[in-house]
Amino acid sequence: MKRKYNQIITELTDKELLYHLYLTQIILLGISLILGAILYDHFSYIQNIDLLDHHILTIGIPAGVIIVFADVLLMKLLPASFYDDGGLNERIFKNRHVFHIFVIALFVAFSEELLFRGIIQTKVGLVLASIIFAIIHYRYLFNWYLFFNIILLSFLIGFIYKWTGNLAVTIMMHFVIDFLLGLYIKFRLTSDEMNREEQLCE
Q1: What is the pTM (predicted TM-score) of this model?
Q2: Would you say 94 and 189 are in contact if contact means Cβ atoms under 8 Å apart?
Q3: Residues of the chain with pLDDT under 50
C-alpha cells in the first residue's frame, strides 16, 4: 500500500499535485458549509472567529513557532525515515515561491481548522476530532512516527481552541506551522542542492 502511494505521488506532475492539494481543501470547505448548515443555526460557528483577540499574537503565533522549532530539531536528531511521507511535502514546497507557500499555508489552515475545530470538535469533542484530523492526513498512516506526531499536534491545537474559544487563534497557529515548515523544506532542499553542485565542481 505504501509503495503504491509513493508511486502515485512520484507520477503526479507538479500541476496535478497542486490541483489535488487545492481540490482537497475546497472539498473540506464544502463539507464545512454542509455540516455547518445542518448542525448550526445561521452558521453560528463563524462567530467563534475573533480577529481582535490578543491570544492570536500571544498564543497562536508563539505556539506555532515553538512547534516548528521542536520539529526542525527532531528532524536533525532523528533518522530521516521518521519523517518519510513519500516525498509529498518536498514536492509541494520545493519549487514554490515564498508567496505561494504563504497562500497554501493560509488556505490549508483556514479550511482544516474551520472543519475540524470549528465544527467537528465543537459537536463531538476533542478526542474524536483529533483522530479524524489525523486520519484525513492519509499519507501519515504509513509512518507510525508521523501518525503519532499528527495526533499529538491535533490534540494540542484542539486544546488551545478549547482554552481560547477562538478559531482565529488555531488558524494562526496552524498557518505559522505550515508556513514556516514549508519555508524550511524549500530552503533546506535548495541549500542541499547548492552544496552538491559545489562539491561536483571541486
Answers
A1: 0.89
A2: yes
A3: none
